[in-house]
Design a protein that fits this description.
By secondary structure, the chain is mostly helical. The protein is built from 4 helices and no strands. The chain has one domain. The chain has helices at residues 13-19, 23-31, 37-49, 60-75.
Length: 87
Amino acid sequence: MKSWPHAVKSTTVYEIRVFCADSEWQRVRLSLKKQTTERKLITLDAWRARKLQSDGTLPRDRQVQIDNYINALKRGGQLGPNLEVVR
């Protein structure tokens, strides 16, 4: 996966604190360490697909978890402004 194809929505600090503390999400997040950026995106996409509802929406907790991680990849220089893999 060379770029993140999904929209990244705004989150609040409160949502990040509450939703990103989830133990299942923490296991997934820790599994991403030392993976390539492409592999991280593939894993995040699979994590997203597990909870995708029939109307194409995600529960807010899953959306916040993923979007927070994608934004961290952007801040870290792994993703560019258009969510493409830089490194």
